[in-house]
Amino acid sequence: MGKSTVTQKTEAISDEGVFAHAAGAAAAAAAARSRSDDHFLTPEEILCGGQSMRSALDTIGGTWAMATLTGLRSGPLRYSELRRCVVGISDRMLSQTLKAFERDGIVDRRVLRTIPSHVEYELTDLGHEVIGAVNEFLLTVMRLAPDVAAARQRHQDSHPA
Questions:
Q1: Residue 59 and which of 84, 86, 91, 130 are 20 to 30 A apart at CA?
Q2: Which pTM value belongs to this model?
Q3: How far is 31 from 42, CA to CA, in rounded Å?
């Protein structure tokens, strides 16, 4: 079976291109840190980081990704343990999430030499740093959730269907 056009284009990206994207993201982060306006990023700074920055946001930005990270924060888990921990996630979504985390250096995948063999996933140092930021974000969202629910209710009340 032949490779898809997307796969061919993805494989055609040179290492130099990947490094250029990463350098762009690093330069954007450095510029944002050097500003004195309370460290709020502009949309341009978020987007000018190139594909590597957008890819990283895609990897950790979803509900299932955040739930999976949270499940792994207390230590290594086998796939089945993680699946039970992240209630409601499908096998396909968990598999995709873990593959993306492994690709981006957020988790280590370890095959255990048991019969039958088992696979264990554990946060890397980068993963621990990411879960710290995700946890702060989630705590803020939880704190603001009642205000968001009240605003939605007010909007619904003032805009009947």
A1: 84
A2: 0.70
A3: 11
